[in-house]
Design brief:
By secondary structure, the chain is mostly helical. It contains four helices and three strands; from the N terminus they run αβαβαβα. It has a domain of about 70 residues. α1 runs parallel beside α2.
Length: about 110
């Protein structure tokens, strides 16, 4: 509560609209070590975020859908065609981000890396 940063291109008085979220994503991906897309269709905000990250040289990872939901599969396949690295298991994140998987290590969800 006593430290941190607020980074914005707009003031608190600026009216929000859908396009502002895409603008905000440019900042969040630029400040990120990587972008991990958990699920998306073939269009929308997550795809836009990934495209922005690719342009910025930020690595993009896509979690392979566990089910056969056509929308999720299409989004995953689109991301991997763009160059996203597929994530098949939580352990993949450990490999990509230098985590450890030894005695006492417990990684159970993607949230453990966020």
């Amino acid at each position: 509560s006593r430290s941190g940063a607020l980074i914005s291109e707009i003031t608190s008085l600026t009216k929000m609209h859908r396009g502002r979220y895409i603008e905000r994503n440019r900042i969040t991906s630029a400040l990120s070590r990587a972008v991990i897309v958990v699920e998306t269709g073939s269009s929308g905000g997550s795809i836009r975020q990934a495209e922005t990250a690719f342009r910025q040289g930020v690595p993009v990872y896509a979690v392979r859908p566990e089910d056969t939901d056509a929308r999720a599969v299409a989004g995953f396949e689109g991301l991997t065609r763009m160059g996203a690295t597929p994530i098949d298991a939580v352990e993949d994140l450990s490999v990509y981000f230098g985590g450890t998987q030894g005695p006492g290590a417990r990684i159970t969800t993607l949230a453990d890396f966020l």
